[in-house]
Amino acid sequence: MLKGGLVNPDGSRLRFVMEDVTGMGTFGIVLRRGKNALKVAKVRSLSGYSEEETTILKSDNESNLACLEVEKDVYRRAAPFPGIVECIGISNDGILMAYYERGTLDDHIKNNQKPDVARQVHWIMSAISTVHHFHKCNILVDDIALRNMLLTEDWSIKMIDFGYCVLFPPELDLTTVEDEHGLTIKGDIFHLGNLIYSIAAWEKFHFELYPHLRYERPPINELPDPAPLLFGKLIQKCWTGAFVCSVLDGHGKVLDGSDKGKDKRFADVDRRKTNSDAIGTSTASYTARPIDTSDTSIAY
What we know:
By secondary structure, the protein is of the alpha+beta class. Helix content is 27%, strand content 11%. It contains five helices and nine strands. The chain has helices at residues 51-78, 105-111, 117-136, 185-201, 232-240; strands at residues 21-24, 28-33, 36-41, 87-90, 95-98, 139-140, 149-151, 157-159, 166-167. The strands form three sheets. The protein has a five-stranded antiparallel beta sheet with strand order 1-2-3-5-4. Residues 274-281 and 293-300 have low confidence and may be disordered.
């Protein structure tokens, strides 16, 4: 076997061609399997390395396998749910999931013009609803980002990549706990604010909340001004820690801060479709409009 080649948990060679690879993350690799996708841990063969290298690589393998087991546990506890990628099966080899050809919301924003307000609202509400669902399951997500949002055939979004989640016992109050690195529910809501900002502004925004593996909220003046955007007040509340537990209230509606009553941009949005109970299959029509790189007049 080639030095550093990927192997299955039992040590046998992981067989695939590069055309099968649809995603490569820190701890896992996603392989196309017909109409589905199989996520496996990045486990490398220890053959051909020095003793020091083998020790490091063995530790990495164990960490990657542990992350995959966390992701399996997340699917067992939180799925199925409309905003979570469909999990078809879990085995010793990995996680078999539905495959979505439209790719990530990150790539979509990079390559296409801003959609209408109704589409943005639908995606934002879907993200809010999904994070709220995880919190109700006593799970902190941590890695809430555009790259972890997949677009389905009907232009809904599905969240993926849960290896860095933290699962707390169901009886604990999620608003009062943190993991060993200081991750809290307010950290999740901060990252959710980043995601909402990115969709509303139609440009990727990322702020590393845990640069030293400790929770460090930045001064608000170091963040972009969300005031002119859809859900601007909501974004600011996510960033300033104003939400103690959730961005949603008990009725599945966005808590104070959405500006929907005053913002004329919401005029054409069907309010019946912007609460968490309505999130799921998207029925509104949408046509992606690729960016014309030869046209420098396009504004965002």
